[in-house]
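Page 47, continued from p. 46.
Same chain as before, 61 aa.
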Amino acid sequence: MWEELGKAVCLILIIEGVVPFLYPDRWRKLVATLAIIDDRRLRIMGLLSMLIGLALLLITN
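Result:
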């Protein structure tokens, strides 16, 4: 289980690094935009992201 978790973390880091590597200016603008969004919207976006990820995991297994 720990090996799979480690691989998952590595994949997250790879995926998260693609946009700043390929489009640093766009990534900087996105981060600036996220900085001004209120906490409630960010939490809703985070919750939706987690639920979509969970649903995809359940569908693929």
